[in-house]
Design goal:
Elements: H1 8-18, H2 22-26, H3 32-63, H4 66-85, H5 87-102, H6 106-141, H7 146-159, H8 163-178, H9 182-205, H10 215-239, H11 255-287, H12 291-327, H13 331-358, H14 360-365, H15 373-405, H16 410-432, E1 435-436, E2 445-446, H17 452-476
Antiparallel strand pairs: 1-2
Helix pairs in contact: 1-13, 3-4, 3-9, 3-12, 4-7, 4-11, 4-12, 5-6, 5-8, 5-11, 5-12, 6-7, 6-8, 6-11, 7-10, 8-9, 8-10, 9-10, 11-16, 12-13, 12-15, 13-15, 15-17, 16-17
Transmembrane segments: 74-97, 117-142, 154-174, 186-208, 220-241, 261-286, 306-326, 338-359, 379-399, 411-433, 445-465
Protein name: Multidrug-efflux transporter
GO biological process, one term: monoatomic ion transport
């Protein structure tokens, strides 16, 4: 790996001194077992979601054109945006349900679940209409042109009607996770992903009686998966689980509960939305470099998600444990649970970073056909770059999740804005382009002209800054006294 790579364990030794002696929390019987119980279903769930992304990329990379490969990578961001639209409700619901389940006040947790679903529905319908109307402008803003833009637009039109079902699964699974019911989220997403992959391959390539729709078949598979996921989530909630049960008489608007839900959820949701919007801005900078750069960026991101996967699982577990332990008035266990999540995520993600740094070309070549080898060569240095960014990504992921689980959502929002708007976006312009035109400046400001690799340098710099900021907030401990 060389002197440029720092293994996550080097960072984790810092927390041994700041938070608790190693022997105190490694042997804590009430931390590791719940952490693993909460994280493994989410890890499998994220793995299945990752499999869908790999499936779509491999299907496009081997059977369709370069312009379709650029479009499918952009659609991954836009599908993320669909889920992000409901993050305000989902984050607030998860934190409050976890807090009241930890305090053994199940009826209050159930009331917040109903209000979250009600607000989610009120957001889903107008959002779907607005997204359908603004679709062409969104794609034009993201710098796709020609065949790539037309492909992205047709995909968007097929997926948008499924938005209410996306809301049902996003908010419903968030409530179940807050109650500690992780396996059901895994079951739902397993069904979603099986339907998605099966329908996409069948209608893209025309298996059996299915017509050969090509690119539109991939979009149709995604929409079918979302619809099935929403229906299955609804059925689970109607039947009842972990003390949460859907009761139609409880779907009455309650202003005080909605206020509390949004007070916690809005900062967290704005953080997620700001992250997604800035990522879309970031990918627009990359798309402006052409289809090859956009395709290489997307291939590298798909592979990088292999390392992010365990971080996302331990993030959900850390958020749930933090909320429940604070609700049970056991902040010391919340602290130890978060540190344990950092240790385990760091070990697994660090292994991924070693693979990215050692075998970048081999990994990138798995995603594309022989006719797109140049894209694999362009993606390989991106994987080596993100290998250096894995250690700070561990802390950003786990600590941000813990702060959200505690209801301390304002600080992660601030840190995300500082990192994204202060480092990643301006850094991407400066490092990617040979010259940057600034408002009110007659001549362009000289840039480094590093292409897509420069954008990834800016991304790593952003991760290091936000890792420092989120670490400071966690060590400060103010999240332990947040009232929700």
């Amino acid at each position: 790996m060389g002197r440029h790579f720092i293994h996550p364990l080097a960072y984790l030794l810092l927390f041994e001194r700041m938070a608790a002696p190693v022997n105190d929390w490694i042997d804590e019987p009430g931390v590791y077992r719940p952490l693993l119980r909460l994280s493994w279903p989410v890890l499998l769930e994220q793995g299945l979601a990752l499999l869908v992304g790999f499936s779509d990329t491999i299907l496009t990379g081997h059977y369709l054109s370069e312009s379709h490969l650029a479009a499918v990578n952009l659609m991954a961001y836009l599908l993320w945006l669909l889920y992000g639209l409901f993050s305000v409700v989902a984050i607030g619901a998860s934190a409050l349900v976890a807090r009241y389940v930890g305090a053994r006040r199940i009826m209050m947790a159930e009331r917040f679940m109903h209000q979250a679903l009600l607000v989610g529905f009120l957001v889903a319908v107008p959002s779907a209409i607005l997204a359908a109307v603004l679709g062409p402008k969104i794609i034009a803003f993201l710098q796709l042109q020609g065949t790539s833009a037309k492909a992205a637009q047709s995909y968007w039109e097929i997926v948008i009607p499924a938005m209410p079902f996306v809301m049902l699964s996003a908010v419903g699974i968030a409530c179940l996770r807050g109650a500690g019911a992780m396996v059901q989220g895994l079951i739902i997403m397993t069904i979603v992903n099986i339907v998605n992959i099966a329908v996409s391959w069948a209608f893209c390539l025309g298996f059996g009686p299915c017509p050969r729709w090509g690119w539109e078949g991939i979009a149709f598979g995604t929409a079918c998966g979302y619809c099935v996921g929403g229906v299955v989530t609804l059925l689970i909630l109607v039947r009842g689980l972990a003390g949460l049960r859907l009761r139609w008489r409880m779907f009455r608007y309650q202003g005080k509960l909605v206020y509390r839900l949004l007070r916690v959820g809005i900062p967290g949701g704005l953080e997620t939305l700001s992250m997604i919007l800035c990522q879309l801005w970031f990918v627009a900078i990359v798309n402006a470099l052409g289809d090859k750069a956009a395709a290489a960026h997307g291939v590298a991101l798909r592979i990088e998600s292999l390392a992010f996967l365990p971080g996302a699982a331990f993030q959900v577990a850390a958020a749930t444990m933090t909320g429940q332990y604070l609700g049970a008035r056991q902040p010391h266990k919340a602290t130890r649970g978060v540190i344990a999540a950092c240790v385990l995520a760091g070990l697994v993600m660090g292994t991924g970073a070693i693979l990215f740094y050692t075998f970048p070309l081999q990994l990138a070549s798995l995603m594309v056909g022989d006719h797109q080898r140049d894209i694999a060569h362009l993606a390989a240095p991106l994987l080596r770059t993100i290998a250096v960014g894995i250690p700070p990504l561990v802390f950003v992921t786990i600590f941000s999740g813990a702060l959200r689980g505690a209801g301390d959502t304002r600080w992660p929002l601030l840190f995300s804005l500082i990192g994204l708007l202060g480092v990643r976006i301006p850094g991407a312009y400066w490092l990617t382009l040979p010259g940057v035109v600034l408002p009110g400046v007659a001549l362009p400001v000289p840039g480094w002209g590093l292409g897509v690799l420069g954008a990834w340098y800016a991304m790593v710099a952003d991760l290091y800054l936000r890792a420092c900021l989120t670490t400071w907030r966690f060590v400060h401990g103010g999240w332990k006294t947040i009232r929700v």
